[in-house]
Amino acid sequence: MTQIKHPILSFSLVTLQFALIGILLLVLPLSLHPIILGIQALAIIIGLWAVFVMHIGHFNIVPDPMPEIELVTHGPYRFIRHPMYFSILLFFLPIVVLDLSWLALALYSGLILTLFVKLSYEEQMLMDTLPEYEDYQLASKKIIPFVF
User: Fold this and answer.
1) Chain centroid to CA 108
2) How far apart are CA 89 and CA 62, in angstroms?
3) Which of 43, 34, 123, 119 is nearest to 88 (CA)?
């Protein structure tokens, strides 16, 4: 079954994702605590590693697969299918925990929900586009290394 692309859904999810990231950056307190900075540095490294392995120009900010897509299964993609999403969630986790307000939890939960809707939509399109994607799903975790 071929999945129909929905550009309005794709751009809406990206817009919501970036809006939530922007609001979280404005609302959450900055911290110079070494543990928080270490976790955030790790998140940035994972995100950059994913971009490096995917090669700039070969990934799309919207969840729609690019026409000449090739499945990448090395680097961080060996362990999880969505390392860039993981890096976003990991980056904000320690400062959400530090703040622990209803607003921070609501915004972070909204970001998690948005990313999960986006990755589910993306994975459906990837299964339709790449015949080997189902095997890759069985061999890797979705977003949390070794867990989920």
Assistant:
1) 13
2) 18
3) 43
Residue 2 has pLDDT above 60, yes or no: no
How far is it, in rounded angstroms, from Cα 97 to Cα 21? 16
* Position 85 pLDDT exceeds 90: yes
Contact 71, 136 (CB under 8 A): yes
Cα angle: 7, vertex 50, 117; to 5 degrees:
35
Say if residues 21 and 111 touch (Cβ distance below 8 Å). yes
Q: What is the DSSP string of 61-74?
A: SSSSPPTT-----S
Distance from the Cα of residue 131 to its chain's centroid:
22
Question: Mean of the pLDDT values across residues 19-28?
Answer: 97
CA–CA–CA angle 62, 90, 5 (5° rounding) = 15
Which tokens belong to 16? 């919501």
pTM attached to this predicted model: 0.90
Which pLDDT belongs to residue 1? 47
CB distance 121 to 13 below 8 Å: yes
Query: What CA–CA distance (Å, rounded) separates 77 from 124?
Result: 17
Identify the pLDDT of residue 60.
Answer: 75
